[in-house]
Amino acid sequence: MGALDGRVVLVTGGGNGIGRECALIAAREGAKVLVNDLGGGERGGDEGSTGPAETVAAEIRAAGGEAVANSDSVTSMAAVKGMVEQALDAFGGLHAVINPAGILRDGMFHKMPDEDWDIVIDVHLRGSYNVCRATIEHFRNQNDGAYVLFTSTSGLIGNVGQANYAAAKLGIMGLSRIIAMEGVTKNVRSNIIAPTAWTRLIATIPIKDEAGAARMEAMKEALKPEQPARLAVALASPAASDVTGQIFGARSETLEVFSQPRPVETVTAADHWTVATILSEALPKLKGKFTPIGGVGQQRPQPAAAPAQ
């Protein structure tokens, strides 16, 4: 028995990287899979082909599973609605969406071209909206559905040179949270994953020196795309029916759950705040709870030690 027996799953970006592993693992866990991938170039988002999606679908079928391919873009609502219809026509249903489709267009914000901002927001945030909006009524009507969307520590924590990506990925956090809140009474769940894995997108980050090249090579060896993909498939399973509205991290064999923004300190004026008293009293009192400006390289919790045997 697999964790997704009898389920139909749409996997976007399924031709490469994390998406490919999500599709293959979902199929091994018993799902019928619609593999979507634009088939773009190295950076993603470029004009693509049917090749990558069909290659993965064929691999699933060769292993005895059921899969069909789709090479449309998640940036088009009409195309995403077509994916839903394709899943219903091919397999008679749809139960989960796993949405790792994405691109990078890195650059310092003060030098960022408008088109690099637009395409990253379009693929990540608009794409997430499209796959959710095109399926939400179907999920609510059948009282059953799961979304696994993808965020990033670039948005949750911050990363220099990725303002467009960070803005899109933090927007996905808000989208997922509201879908989860509104879906509780209809058994519709939504969770997000901030993965750390070697993919073709990571490979596009410029390498400036030998030390950077060595770090990249170490990352490639340690951070495999199947690691976060396993978590994505688990979250799509009905066995995780009580898990919703959460933010997970997956780094190598370490899984994390992230805190979500809540007030951490409060100061109240006896009468009312003025600009002067905010500067002289409020900010100094709040300063001890400020979040450090450090980015994704700042200290993270260490994995718990294995229990003694």
Task: Describe the 3D structure.
The protein has 309 residues and is an alpha/beta fold. It has two domains: 8-257, NAD(P)-binding Rossmann-like Domain (Rossmann fold), CATH 3.40.50; 264-297, no CATH class. The protein has nine helices and eight strands. The protein has helices spanning 17-28, 51-62, 77-91, 114-142, 153-156, 163-183, 210-222, 226-236, 275-286, and strands at 8-11, 32-36, 66-70, 96-99, 145-150, 188-196, 247-251, 254-257. Strands 3-2-1-4-5-6-7-8 form an eight-stranded mixed β-sheet, with helices on both faces. Helix 1 (17-28) links the parallel strand 1 and strand 2. The longest helix is centred in the middle third of the chain and has 29 residues, at 114-142. The mean pLDDT is 91.
Q: What's this model, at a glance?
A:
This protein is an alpha/beta fold and 309 residues long. It contains nine helices and eight strands.
Summarize this structure as a short list of keywords or feature phrases:
309 residues, Rossmann fold, 2 domains, 8-stranded mixed beta sheet
SSE layout and pairings?
Blueprint: E1 8-11, H1 17-28, E2 32-36, H2 51-62, E3 66-70, H3 77-91, E4 96-99, H4 114-142, E5 145-150, H5 153-156, H6 163-183, E6 188-196, H7 210-222, H8 226-236, E7 247-251, E8 254-257, H9 275-286
Parallel strand pairs: 1-2, 1-4, 2-3, 4-5, 5-6, 6-7
Antiparallel strand pairs: 7-8
Helix pairs in contact: 1-2, 1-8, 3-4, 4-6
